[in-house]
Amino acid sequence: MSYPAPHAVPHIPRSGAVAARATALSKVYGQGETRVAALDSVSVEFRRAEFTAIMGPSGSGKSTLMHCMAGLDTISSGSTRIGDVELGSLGDRQLTALRRDRIGFVFQAFNLLPTLSALENITLPMDIAGRKPDPQWLQQVVATLGLSGRLAHRPSQLSGGQQQRVAVARALTAQPEIIFADEPTGNLDSRSGAELLGFLHESVRALQQTVVMVTHDAVAASYADRVVFLADGRIVDELREPTADAVLDRMRRLPGGNPRTPAFDAKGRTS
After folding, report:
1. Start and end of every ABC transporter domain (predicted)?
2. 237: which DSSP letter?
3. pLDDT value at residue 270
4. What are residue 49's phi and psi, to 5 degrees?
């Protein structure tokens, strides 16, 4: 399956609703001389049916921001919301249920169970929750990700790129309000990485999903509708309809900015 270069046709989100929001979010580790402010009063919104990339130098707070907004880590001050729900108001069990039912996750590690088929891995979280996926939606997700002919295969029978697509399908199947992806191409070769980014790009357009992706790669960021730049725990810049060159230029201006050299271009060609 082939994909156009990002932004060949400008994407305008169909909904102005906010999928997730942080307000004056701070995260501090340690005390006294060991005190480190990983996030310093960050305020940001992620709108529905939009693909946002988060970039910044190492230690800028990218993954911390994602973990706090997804309820995977506690915050020191401020507030975080998924839709209209403030995470700070939830107990542990409520927070677990919210992450399961309303948030999708994609990480570098595929986190697939080796004894289950691709389809069983895709539906596992919903099976555990006692819910059934919508058959039409599941079929659409599987078709969009190019997995229709691989559903009976176990992870060992799939390539790395196919395994990561299964992980993305697992995140999409519950129809979450937002998907958080932390360096999803980190364990993939160049071509598989380009294919996965194309699938994420397409899931926003064809399936109206909301994706927030942490990345070090300028080309990966160019698949997004918007790039948010962090430095020293603060949002310092933003770019819409990004190109890889524009992202590289912005990154070079940041303190400690040293963007990863692109391994593939926006059409999936290795360099």
Report:
1. 20-257
2. E
3. 39
4. 60, 35
User: What percentage of the chain has pLDDT greater than the value 90?
Assistant: 62
Among 256, 192, 250, residue whose Cα is nearest residue 218: 250
Token match 């340690």: residue?
30
Joined together, the tokens standing for residue 150 give: 């691989």
265 in any annotated domain: no
Mean of all residue pLDDT scores within the chain: 87
Handedness of CA 13, 19, 25, 28 (dihedral sign): negative
**CATH of residue 29:** 3.40.50.300
Three-state DSSP class for residue 3: coil
Residue holding tokens 């357009």?
Answer: 205
Q: Please compute the mean of the pLDDT values over residues 235-254 and round it to a whole number.
A: 94
Dihedral (CA of 193, 240, 213, 208) sign: negative
pTM (two decimals):
0.84
Please report whether residue 149 resides in a domain: yes
| Model confidence pLDDT, tens digit, residues 94-134 | 999 899 889 999 888 889 999 999 999 999 989 988 989 99
Q: Is residue 10 part of a domain?
A: no
230 domain residue, yes or no: yes
Q: Tokens at residue 258, please?
A: 């040293």
* Plot region of 247 (φ>0 → left; ψ -120 to 50 → alpha; else → beta): alpha
Query: Using an 8 Å Cβ cutoff, are 171 and 126 in contact?
Result: no
Residue whose C-alpha is closest to residue 60's, from 259, 220, 261, 264: 259
In the structure, what pLDDT confidence band is assigned to residue 269 with cuts at 50, 70 and 90? very low
Provide the domain limits for residue 74: 18-260
User: For the chain, what is the domain count?
Assistant: 1
- The stretch 158-179 carries a mean pLDDT of 91
DSSP3 helix / strand / coil % (the chain, rounded to 5): 35, 25, 40
Helical segments of the chain, H only: 62-69, 92-102, 118-128, 135-144, 160-173, 190-207, 218-221, 244-253
